[in-house]
Write a structure and sequence with these properties.
Oligomer: heterodimer
Shape of chain A: elongated
Number of strands of chain A: 12
Number of helices of chain B: 14
CATH architecture of the largest domain in chain A: 3-Layer(aba) Sandwich
Shape of chain B: globular
CATH superfamily of the largest domain in chain A: Nitrogenase molybdenum iron protein domain
Helix content of chain B: over 70%
Helix content of chain A: 40-55%
Order of helices and strands of chain B: HHHHHEEHHHHHHHHH
Distance between the termini of chain A: 67 Å
CATH superfamily of chain B: ABC transporter involved in vitamin B12 uptake, BtuC
Order of helices and strands of chain A: HEEEHEHHEHEHHEEHEEHEHHEHHH
Number of strands of chain B: 2
Structural class of chain A: alpha/beta
Radius of gyration of chain A: 23 Å
CATH class of chain B: Mainly Alpha
């Protein structure tokens, strides 16, 4: 206990001195942009204010989405630890592992002596994050709930990592791509879309998931929205009753395909027309930059569905329930 | 031992009607609307539209599977309770469930999704192996005692549970939901094919147990008394053990681990017809079938968040019912 107090005291002392150094450095004309102003104090998504004296040089990421954002910001070199699920970009796989998202190893993280830990409130256990903070390690929590919040998170992490300009530029580029990916005409036909994360049993993505948002942004209707809960389990009959026009499968190793006794239900337009699209599960479940890639693929698939439709809107409407 | 002789005359028609009613209710419940007219046409005129196909290849097979599974679990429970002379015995008490789970998880987690037809086979193999292991471990030259069977069953079950936990922990994340639903018990795999495969096992097991019913009556008196009554005790015990394990194993293989049916339904049936096995076994079969079909209908229809695992419903409905039975019986005696 006493050693912890001593560390905290040392930290406070250092924090007191660092700003002076940094101010001195900027005064001497080092290329620090207007927004890269350290020391900085930034409120995270928990409402906790995180203070950094200087741009962090040893960062640990507790989620694959955060690792992807750090690399996007050009700060991959500052990462000293990631989770065992962090596999993108390829360079992330080579970094030291600190455990999983739900079971990060506090001691291993402390041993890496990070000056910043990036965490999420969706998945990281709160008490482990608190344990890190008690060791004097600043933890910045990000929990975007929709695509817009992902872009904002990229900008904020840019500020935090001393890459504010890069963050703004990348977020703006992603916003542009997302705008382009959405259907151009407002009257575009809306297919019923089912997004599943498991094919046997059938588990769909309901309201409140990123997959639901992707479907809506791409101009589709989520056929699982009538169920409550974020990941409802559907029976084969539920699937037949929902009659989705397009089915997306968020593929994870070995579970991409529906069993034959499910696909033989040709009442389901997606099975009849072969409109079952497999997407990399990592793209659609991680609130990171690649959500835009997922949006582009979903949009392209729905555009393909529209273009294969006969050009008589009346007949199209009659085909639906 | 003598159930109310007079009132039980009407019990069997009532139980059969309950099972039929449960099957009908189950067949009438689901998200695709099916009118009584469409159902009639589907069954008697062989129409081939969507409602007909939903009825004939999804709902009815699932309902029939529920009836077979529920009946088999209840019969198996009756047999184990007599064999072990223990009211808390159920079909899973002797390691059958753990063996089946390890067999099924091996297929579900580590082989490709296309290997799923193998799952029932491997689950059955696992159940048979573990049931046999428990039996051989418990046997001594003097025969099999209930105490040793239970002890060995619990130890083997604990060991297999550890294996299950390891397997689920080490499994690739995408495959975990399927495995968990299987462990919780699930009738969603009901296809006409599965029903056809399961039927002979259940029929054979149920008939064999029925033929053993006099032996089961005598076993309840204790080995010594049964022997004096002219029973070849060890042979009856071995036959009962193997038959009840066959029933439990074949059922677990297609539906996963559905708890509580094999424990409470035998007690419910005893309240209705007494503990003579010639009446108890058929009553338990009908009651178990009706109970599971109703539970599954509830599991499909009750939640706005999609299907629930039927194993959760049987335990939710079963535990309070069991307590009610215990208290009612306590008051009467």
């Amino acid at each position: 206990m006493s050693s912890r107090v001593r560390i905290a005291a040392a930290r406070r002392l250092l924090c007191g001195f660092f700003p002076a150094f940094v101010l001195l450095a900027s005064a001497l004309g080092s290329p620090v942009s207007a927004t890269d102003r350290f020391p900085l104090a930034l409120k995270d998504d928990r409402g906790v204010t995180v203070r950094l004296a200087a741009p962090p040089r040893r960062v640990v990421s507790l989620a694959p989405s955060l690792t992807e954002i750090v690399f996007l910001l050009g700060r991959g070199g500052s990462l000293v630890g990631v989770t065992r699920f962090c596999n993108f970009p390829a360079a992330a796989s080579a970094l030291p592992k600190i455990g999983g998202v739900s079971d990060p190893d506090v001691e291993r993280i402390v041993a890496l002596s990070p000056d910043l830990v990036l965490c999420t409130t969706d998945g990281n256990p709160r008490d482990k994050v608190r344990a890190l903070e008690e060791m004097g390690i600043p933890c910045f929590a990000v929990a975007p709930q929709d695509l817009g919040a992902v872009f904002t998170a990229i900008e904020r992490l840019g500020v935090l990592l001393g890459a504010a300009d890069r963050g703004r530029a990348e977020a703006e580029a992603l916003r542009g791509r997302a705008r382009l990916a959405r259907p151009s005409s407002r009257g575009a036909e809306k297919p019923d879309v089912l997004f599943v994360v498991s094919t046997s049993p059938i588990i769909a993505a309901g309201e409140g998931t990123f997959m639901d948002e992707l479907v809506r942004l791409a101009g589709g209707r989520n056929a699982a929205a009538r169920f409550s809960g974020r990941y409802p389990r559907l029976s084969v009959e539920d699937l037949v009753a929902a009659r989705p026009d397009v089915i997306f499968v968020a593929g994870m190793a070995g579970v991409e395909r529906f069993p034959r006794e499910v696909t033989r239900w040709k009442e389901v337009p997606a099975f009849r027309d072969g409109s079952v699209v497999t997407l990399d599960g990592d793209l659609v479940t991680r609130p990171g930059p690649r959500l835009v890639t997922a949006l582009e693929r979903v949009s392209a698939a729905l555009a393909g569905w529209r273009s294969s439709r006969p050009k008589t809107p009346a007949a199209g409407a009659g085909g639906k329930r | 031992m003598t159930g109310g002789g007079k009132r039980s005359g009407a019990v069997f028609p009532v139980l059969a009607a309950a099972l039929l009613g449960a099957l009908a209710l189950s067949a009438a419940t689901g998200p695709v609307p099916i009118s009584p007219r469409a159902a009639f046409d589907a069954i008697f005129r062989g129409t081939d539209d969507t409602p007909a196909r939903v009825l004939l290849s999804l709902r009815l097979p699932r309902a029939l599977l529920g009836a077979l599974v529920g009946g088999a679990l209840a019969s198996s429970g009756v047999a184990f309770q007599a064999l072990l002379r223990n009211p808390l015995a159920d079909p899973y008490i002797l390691g059958v469930s753990g063996g089946a789970a390890v067999g099924a998880l091996t297929v579900a987690l580590f082989l490709s999704a296309d290997a799923s037809p193998l799952l029932p086979l491997c689950a059955f193999g696992g159940a048979a192996l573990s049931a046999l292991a428990v039996f051989l471990l418990a046997r001594r030259r003097s025969g099999v005692s209930p105490e040793r069977l239970i002890l060995m069953g619990v130890v083997v079950g604990a060991f297999l549970n550890a294996v299950i936990m390891l397997m689920v922990t080490l499994a690739p994340p995408g495959k975990i939901p399927g495995a968990l639903y299987w462990l919780m018990g699930d009738l969603g795999q009901g296809t006409p094919h599965r029903v056809a495969v399961l039927f002979p096992y259940v029929a054979l097991g149920a008939v064999l147990l029925y033929l053993l019913s006099r032996g089961l009556d005598l076993l309840l008196l204790g080995d010594h008394a049964a022997f004096q009554a002219g029973l070849s005790v060890e042979r009856v015990k071995t036959a009962t053990y193997l038959t009840a394990s066959l029933l439990a194993g074949s059922v677990v293989a297609v539906s996963g681990l559905i708890g509580f049916v094999g424990l409470i339904v035998p007690h419910g049936a005893r309240v209705l017809v007494g503990s003579g096995h010639r009446r108890l076994l058929p009553a338990a079969f009908l009651l178990g079938g009706a109970f599971l079909v109703l539970s599954d209908t509830l599991a499909r229809a009750a939640s706005p968040a999609g299907e629930l695992p039927v194993g959760a419903i049987t335990a939710l409905a079963g535990a309070p019912f069991f307590l009610y039975l215990l208290r009612r019986n306590g008051r009467r005696s």
